[in-house]
Amino acid sequence: MQFRNFKMVDYVVFGRGSFNQLDEILAPKRKSDAPMIFLVDHFFEGKALPSRIPLRGKDKIIFADVTLEPKTKQVDALAQQLKDEFGTVSGIIGIGGGSTMDLAKAVSLMMTNPGSSADYQGWDLVKQPGVYKAGIPTLSGTGAEVSRTTVLTGPTRKLGMNSDFTPFDQIVLDPELAADAPVNQRFYTGMDCYIHCIESLEGTFLNEFSKSYGEKALELCQEVFLTRDHWDATSDDKLMMASYAGGMSIAYSQVGVTHAVSYGLSYLLGTKHGIGNCIVMNHLEEYYPAGVDEFKRMVEKNHIDIPTGVCKGLTDEQFDIMINVSLGMKPLWENALGKDWEKIMTREKLRALFERL
Ligand code: NAD
Ligand code: ZN
Questions:
Q1: Which ligand is nearest to the CA of 64?
Q2: How far apart are CA 83 and CA 107, in angstroms?
């Protein structure tokens, strides 16, 4: 097909307190006595949120350990645990940041697709719809709530399960849930959105669809991280919509240099996505001059520390691993640098960039 015909999230609810509608939203999706599984970010263990989850029958809350980003092994183990315990489930509800939402999407798919989630890392390899899945973000920025991928670290690569079966059936955007996010984490994840906008708007894949969403998301990021003089509830509202629009923008285009490089860092060093993107963006004046300048002003205004020297002391072999992972992200490089990207981003040039981080 010449034009991408992309699958979107089926239902969206937005508003402060909309989480309270969850019972009503899930009721028609319940299948006889198969439970709803609530995969909840472990940050909320012992907090008030779990007591607000509308548990019915055999429903279960599983706290997701997101100390590390999701792995194919973790997804496979969770899906197996649910099959052993319940046979089948009515749905998987992911409540948390990008990591928890990605886990929920992947576990939903692995309830119905055979083998390991590692078999489906790539584009359009998933063959069966998963079980019903809903995403409820508690951090804003990744766009995982709207995307057609779930990013997993597998035995040989960090790559998403990109497919038409991957988007959520339902998302609940309740900015109240993001209110307790620590300032640094909120910034790192928020910058993921900012960087999605820069990479989409500066990319060669840009079209009016992506541009419309990207420009709006960029404006919202600028408001919350530069113009507004303090953080309040409205800032959470705006950043949650920025994340949504930023995700929609890259859905019809692609990310770019920051992501390609930060995937390499993350694969080798386990650097998390948000902070990894910030570490890389800090050194990308050559590719995104205006974006990097504005990014640095946002860092300063919000008093955030961006780590430096993260590749000091790495061996040639380790640099090679990062370079291989990074150069493997072909569509990202093509979006950023055009069809001849391989002539521009040589292994030597990329090595020099990694050394600066
Ligand atoms: P995260 O989900 O990894 O969470 C970061 C930290 O914040 C964790 O310690 C978590 O416990 C904590 N946390 C979450 N919500 C909180 C809250 N309300 N208050 C306090 N702490 C809270 O962070 P993220 O940046 O949202 O997600 C990063 C992940 O998203 C990566 O795994 C990345 O690969 C993935 N990602 C996916 C897509 C996609 O399209 N599927 C896009 C971008 C990133
Ligand atoms: Zn990202």
A1: 1
A2: 11
Q: How remote is the CA of residue 24 from the centroid of ligand 2, in Å?
A: 32
**Domains: count for the chain:** 2
What pLDDT, in 10s, does the model give residues 98-143?
999 999 999 999 999 999 999 999 999 999 999 999 999 999 999 9
165 and 307 in a common domain: no
CB distance 97 to ligand 1 below 6 Å: yes
How high is the ipTM of this complex? 0.99
Among all bound ligands, the one having the nearest atom to the CA of 200 is 2
Nearest protein CA to atom 17 of ligand 1, as residue: 181
* 8-state DSSP, 312: T
Task: Determine the distance separating the centroid of ligand 2 and the alpha carbon of 140, expressed in angstroms.
Answer: 11
Q: Which tokens sit at 128?
A: 């069966």
Which ligand 1 atom minimizes the distance to the CA of 189? 25
Distance of CA 41 from the midpoint of ligand 1 (Å): 9
**Domain ranges, residue 352:** 183-356
Place of tokens 């046979």: 87
Greatest Cα-to-Cα distance within the chain, rounded to the nearest angstrom? 59
Looking at residue 275, which CATH number applies to its domain?
1.20.1090.10
Residue numbers in the chain where pLDDT is lower than 70: none
Spell 201-210 as b/e; 16+ CB within 10 A means b.
bbbebbeeeb
